Amino acid sequence: MSINLSLLPADEKNRIELDKQASFLVWKLKQAKAGPEVIDAQLSKLIDESERECFVQSIDKYKRVMGVS
């Protein structure tokens, strides 16, 4: 079963994008290509509280999955 992501509502697309960004930033931390300040910088750009919460949850999820403390 395939899902066309372009048909999703804008808020759901945004959540997917935030999840992708979180995954990439945690990967950069794991590879020692960036420090924790990159996460703080991205978090400071998010104004909407629900987006911030979603981003923090994704960061926590990927830290667990990738074994980053």
TrEMBL record:
Lineage here is: Bacteria, Pseudomonadati, Pseudomonadota, Gammaproteobacteria, Vibrionales
- Give the species this sequence originates from: Vibrio xiamenensis
A GO biological process of this protein is: DNA replication
Show the InterPro entries listed in the entry.
Answer: DUF3283, PolIII_theta_sf
Protein name in UniProt = Pyridoxamine 5-phosphate oxidase
Pfam families the UniProt entry points to: DUF3283
Q: Which GO terms describe its molecular function?
A: DNA binding; DNA-directed DNA polymerase activity
